[in-house]
């Protein structure tokens, strides 16, 4: 038996988990001890090697962030670990879904994950009202990156901001997440090598999520399933906190457990009515609140 090593989980394969050792490539195929919590892409793990290509994961090192996805009922399941940033991708077509955007931002605000906005397809004209709505977000501290994946506009600037961090692209279907990933990882063989090195002994299996090292530095977690992550695990109070401009008002509500809806002397609602908080954002907060599973709305 060899000594314990540490590594990074780079992919979930049908027959095991691909782990990149800190001092070696290609990744090794690992099994996990049954009693371990779910191991996810981005996790740092302790493992022992049974052969140069195979190992067993024995511990998950503490995570600095975890992204959850809703599972059956009110359950949630971790899908990615140790993310630094979520990049919410938007486009003029399909139309900007601001409710989904606010939902992503609220999750990140409560998960120790930074959030940026990417406006893709800037080769297409953007209506003025959408443009104005989008430009409100930088006033809250969210950076907005205008790009075109197809026309290769703004891609090198984007690559620069992705350096030295682990990121994930989120957004509705069709906004161009795959196109952006391809623009940033032009070397297709580099992308597929990771997986084929691991699955060469068996049938090719679809992966739930994969971590890629970007050529300019930084990691990108690509996961079809994570693209639309839900409000899984958030409480109603966390949802309100996820609206950054609400934060200074929340402490001024009369009641500690103010729901910011019809409550007496709610400073958040008052600010929205006075135009200090954009009414559109407050309304979307109310809508998201309605969408939350009942248990997290209680108490
Ligand atoms: N006009 C224009 N179209 C683009 C641009 N980038 C991507 N598209 C197009 O948008 C469509 C959707 O792109 P995808 O990359 O598949 O979008 P996605 O977000 O990965 O979609 P899902 O895989 O369904 O989640 C494709 O037809 C792309 O060619 C762009 O910069 N400009
Ligand atoms: Zn309130």
From TrEMBL:
Q: Where does Zn(2+) bind?
A: 253, 258, 260, 266
Tell me the keywords, alphabetical order: Cytoplasm, GTP-binding, Hydrolase, Metal-binding, Nucleotide-binding, Ribosome biogenesis, RNA-binding, rRNA-binding, Zinc
**Cofactor(s), by name:** Zn(2+)
Q: Which GO terms describe its molecular function?
A: GTP binding; GTPase activity; metal ion binding; rRNA binding
Which EC class is this protein assigned? hydrolase
A Pfam family of the record is RsgA_GTPase
Q: Does the keyword Signal apply?
A: no
| CP-type G domain boundaries | 64-229
Annotated residues that bind GTP are located at 120-123, 171-179
The processes (GO biological process) annotated in the record are: ribosomal small subunit biogenesis
Mainly resides where? cytoplasm
User: Which InterPro entries does the annotation name?
Assistant: G_CP_dom, NA-bd_OB-fold, P-loop_NTPase, Ribosome_biogen_GTPase_RsgA, RsgA_GTPase_dom
Q: Tell me which domain of life the UniProt entry assigns to the organism this sequence originates from.
A: Bacteria
Which EC number applies?
Answer: 3.6.1.-
- Subcellular compartments: Cytoplasm
Q: How is the cofactor bound?
A: Binds 1 zinc ion per subunit.
Query: Can you give the residue ranges of the EngC GTPase domain?
Result: 81-227
Q: Which GO terms describe its cellular component?
A: cytoplasm
Give the family, as the similarity comment puts it.
Belongs to the TRAFAC class YlqF/YawG GTPase family. RsgA subfamily.
Listed under subunit, the entry gives:
Monomer. Associates with 30S ribosomal subunit, binds 16S rRNA.
Its biological purpose is as follows: One of several proteins that assist in the late maturation steps of the functional core of the 30S ribosomal subunit. Helps release RbfA from mature subunits. May play a role in the assembly of ribosomal proteins into the subunit. Circularly permuted GTPase that catalyzes slow GTP hydrolysis, GTPase activity is stimulated by the 30S ribosomal subunit.
Q: What is this protein called?
A: Small ribosomal subunit biogenesis GTPase RsgA
State the encoding gene: rsgA
């Amino acid at each position: 038996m060899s000594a314990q090593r540490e590594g990074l989980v780079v992919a979930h394969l049908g027959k095991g988990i691909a782990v990149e050792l800190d001092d070696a490539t290609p990744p090794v195929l690992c099994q996990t001890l049954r009693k371990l919590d779910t191991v996810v892409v981005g996790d740092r793990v302790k493992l022992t090697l049974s052969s140069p290509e195979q190992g067993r994961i024995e511990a998950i090192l503490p995570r600095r962030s975890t992204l959850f996805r809703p599972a059956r009922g009110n359950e949630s399941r971790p899908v990615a670990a140790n993310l630094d940033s979520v990049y919410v991708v938007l486009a003029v077509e399909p139309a900007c879904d601001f409710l989904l955007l606010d939902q992503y931002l609220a999750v990140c605000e409560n998960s120790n994950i930074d959030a940026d906005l990417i406006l893709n397809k800037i080769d297409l004209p953007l209506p003025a009202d959408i443009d104005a709505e989008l430009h409100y977000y930088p006033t809250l501290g969210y950076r907005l990156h205008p790009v075109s994946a197809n026309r290769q506009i703004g891609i090198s600037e984007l690559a620069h901001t992705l350096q030295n961090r682990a990121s994930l692209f989120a957004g509705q279907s069709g906004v161009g997440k795959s196109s952006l990933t391809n623009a940033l990882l032009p070397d297709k063989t580099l992308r597929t090598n990771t997986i084929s090195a691991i699955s060469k002994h068996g049938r090719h299996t679809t992966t739930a999520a994969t971590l890629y090292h970007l050529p300019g530095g930084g990691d990108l977690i690509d996961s079809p399933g994570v693209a639309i992550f839900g409000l899984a695990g958030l409480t109603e109070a966390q949802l309100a906190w996820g609206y950054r401009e609400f934060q200074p008002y929340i402490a001024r509500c009369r009641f500690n457990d103010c729901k910011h809806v019809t409550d007496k002397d709610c400073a958040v609602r008052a600010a929205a009515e006075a135009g200090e908080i954009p009414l559109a954002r407050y309304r979307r907060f109310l809508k998201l609140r309605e969408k939350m599973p009942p248990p997290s709305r209680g108490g």
